[in-house]
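for the writeup, i need someone to sanity check this before i put it in the appendix. the sequnce is what the collaborator sent (i think, or maybe the updated version? ugh). structure was predicted straight from it, no edits. if anything looks off just tell me and ill rerun, i have time this weekend
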Amino acid sequence: MSDPTVPASPDVPVSPTPEAHAPVAPEAYVPTVPAPYAGPEATAPPAYGAVPPAYSAYPASTAPAPPRPKTLAVIALVLAGIGLVMAFIPVVTWFAGAALLAAFIIGLVALVNKKQGGKGFAIGAVVVSVVGWIVSIIVTIASFGMIGQAAIEESQRDEVASDSAPAEDEPAAEEAPADTRQELTLVETAFGQSSYDSSTWWYVAVVDNPNEDYIFSFAGIDVEALDANGTILDSSSDYRTILAGRTAVVGTFFSVGDGQITELNVRGPAATDATRAPSSTTGGFQIADVLPTTDDYSTNVHGNVTSTFAEDQELVQVVVIARNGAGAIVAAESGYIDRLPSGGTAQFEVRFFDPLPGDTTYEAYAVL
């Protein structure tokens, strides 16, 4: 019998001890409950040194980019609109430049700045600003012309008032009574179709003021174009100061259409509209050296106008009438002298847009 304390040979199987066959208590069953899905955000970050997964834990954003502000472009367009409206108003147009300049600058900033939207508004503001400047320049020139004309008329009214006031040693009875004033006389009229447009007609009317010491200040001259049936085809109005002696009024009809003018009807101020202005103190014009220059395309007539007024005269109109060899009026045109100095002389030039025959004669009238 072998000694139980001696280990058995490896070749001999050893019986298991009673402890090896002791029953094992079963573990308590714990059911596994899956955790709720918390999304990619709940995923724990990888440990330091771990290789990141092949996909991104945060999906790329698909939200649209925020819209760019249009504030500057809208402001520029509003300023341009205000400036354009101001540009059409005489006198007010002088202040339109500030709004138009601001609109132009703001519009350019909105146009070139990539952070600003409303490019269409910005382009519109720039274009409207440029148009506003052009309108403002035209209206400004017209405004200065009206102001200059008003200043001339005011000066003449002051002269008339001073001349009409009786001197202290001169009895009032020497003033000519109002009923001695005579009506204007229509001396001659002429008209014709323009060579460059058959629907456009020129006209001229020569009137005479027989009142040596009276003038018609800023008088309205209305000229109507009549056809053979007496129908008024078109009309034109002009406002001039009619001095003593002869004056010519020239103009253009644009709305005759296919009609044919056969007669002119000229209407002017009444004799009672004349104001006293003695020719010896009021002043007048003297015209000399009227000469034509003709080429294959046009005829230019130039000459000199001398003023006997005590003050400078601005925007003096010079009307030139062309007569053929028989003395009939065949054309009439006008030009302006910007400033005629007091007691001085200025040269004028008037262009006829057709070459006129060599036997044509010319006469000129200076008109306020």
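The CA atoms of residues 132 and 239 lie 29 Å apart. Confidence is low (pLDDT under 50) at residues 17-22, 38-42, 170-176.
thx in advance!!
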